[in-house]
Automatic annotation (TrEMBL):
Residues 5-232 form the ABC transporter domain. SMART domains: AAA. It comes from the Bacteria. CDD domains: ABC_DR_subfamily_A. Keywords: ATP-binding, Nucleotide-binding. This is ABC transporter ATP-binding protein. GO terms for molecular function: ATP binding. SUPFAM superfamilies: P-loop containing nucleoside triphosphate hydrolases. Belongs to the ABC transporter superfamily. It comes from Devosia algicola.
Length: 315
């Protein structure tokens, strides 16, 4: 099986809200697939339908070769799911938590597996410490270790490093890369650019619909940003002025330069010509990268939950 997830038409409706709307996705084995999108856009609901925790209102397909409707229990056994909030027991010790998860999944050689996980984590000498006393970064490493105990073939990570410092995020991603290298497939929802750039493929979701999907390298093209880089004096003042000019949809600071982007080719190029003619700054055309595309997508995203509530309220 080369496709770990293959679903079409996935839909979930709560009341009058289609929180996931006709969602298709194919995830190849070993891929790191990023789910990007604003709050309330349906990422968690999608993940929960894929792993058999939630029954879709429409749609069909397979996850790990099992039917997402008829064989949800089989899927749950083989998936590692790390939820947004720390879901282990804060008043159990680190070892007790791992042992409990091992029992739940009926892990063979549980004692040895837990000991190995503690060693891998570097927590063997703190195994008796209560999980609730760990820092955010350590809690997240423990949660990852717990959801790996039963050797899942698919990892579903829902904003796994929210609120975790950059160093701990990097360590976490080193581990994810290592797992992916071993053939574990990873689906991860994220709001962070440094996580998005780690993904092989990206799907961008808003209002429950998938708007963009493809290999990370293709995303900037799909977003359709034209970008110029500008260097020179007083970039702060230039930034304020350029933002209001016709055809400009984004001005982002990259070190000692600005990246100025537009989507309407004609209007954008007219404005760039006007600015270049001023002769005060150095302008060079730039191939838009994932960073610009990510900033553009996330900046254009209102909180979908609030937006939906507005719509409901005003109707
Ligand atoms: N059990 C439920 N009952 C009613 N509405 C729900 C339920 N679960 C989710 N929703 C709504 O569905 C929408 C999508 O929520 P979901 O948590 O899937 O989004 P998300 O993209 O994961 O957001 P976030 O990044 O904030 O976690 C939201 O408007 C949410 O309020």
């Amino acid at each position: 099986m080369t496709e770990v997830i293959a679903v079409t038409g996935l839909t979930k409706i709560y009341g009058t809200k289609r929180v996931v709307d006709d969602f298709d996705i194919t995830v190849p084995r070993g891929a790191i697939y990023g789910f990007l999108g604003p709050n309330g856009s349906g990422k968690t609901t999608t993940i929960r339908m894929l792993c058999g925790l939630l029954t879709p209102d429409a749609g069909q397909g397979t996850c790990l070769g099992y039917d997402i409707r008829a064989q949800a229990d089989r899927i749950k056994e083989q998936v590692g799911y790390m939820t947004q909030k720390f879901s282990l027991y804060e008043d159990l010790s680190i070892r007790e938590n791992l042992d409990f998860i091992g029992r739940m999944y009926r892990v063979r050689d549980r004692g040895a597996r837990v000991a190995a996980a503690l060693d891998d984590l570097g927590l063997a000498n703190r195994a008796g410490q209560l999980a609730g006393t760990l820092s955010g970064g350590w809690k997240q490493r423990l949660a990852l270790a717990a959801c790996l105990l039963h050797d899942p073939k698919l990892l579903l990570l829902d904003e796994p490093t929210a609120g975790v410092d950059p160093k701990a995020r990097r360590d976490f991603w080193d581990e994810i890369r290592r797992l992916s290298g071993q053939g574990v497939t990873v689906l991860v929802s994220t709001h962070y650019m440094d996580e998005a750039v780690q993904c092989d493929r990206i799907a961008y979701i808003a209002y429950g619909k998938k708007l963009i999907d493809g290999p990370s390298a293709d995303i900037p093209k799909q977003v359709g940003l034209e970008t110029w880089r500008v260097e020179g004096p007083d970039l702060a003042a230039l930034e304020v002025r350029v933002k209001t000019m016709p055809g400009i949809v984004q001005v982002a600071r990259f070190g000692a330069s600005l990246h100025v982007s537009g989507t309407d080719k004609q209007a954008f190029e007219n404005t760039i010509e006007t600015l270049k003619a001023e002769g005060t700054h150095r302008w060079s055309e730039q191939v838009a990268g994932l960073e610009e595309a990510f900033i553009y997508l996330m900046a254009g995203s209102r909180d979908n939950f609030a937006a939906t509530e507005d719509k409901v309220g005003s109707s």
